[in-house]
Design brief:
This protein is 87% helix and 0% strand. The chain has 77 residues and is mainly α. Bound molecules: zinc ion (ZN).
């Protein structure tokens, strides 16, 4: 059984990754529609998309490692 706080803390990287996916979809949609101001905003967001996706991936990997260590130490059979 995984502790509740570990499961809750997983929501942080998951939210980051989901926002990256959402922004990516928005950026592609704005690009497709060719709306001036929105396309410019999407272009600006796209530069932050990589950072957001990378941060989410690193945090998720860190969370997974953290959970693995916790399961080994605190929940050793
Ligand atoms: Zn635990």
């Amino acid at each position: 059984m995984t502790c509740k706080w570990i499961r809750w803390s997983a929501s942080i990287p998951v939210i980051l990754l989901l926002s990256a996916v959402g922004l990516f979809a928005f950026a592609r949609l704005a690009e497709y529609k060719h709306e001036g101001a929105i396309a410019l905003l999407a272009l600006h967001l796209a530069t932050w998309l990589d950072v957001l996706a990378l941060a989410g991936t690193v945090l998720l990997a860190g969370w997974w490692l953290w959970r693995w260590l916790h399961m080994r130490i605190a929940h050793a059979p």
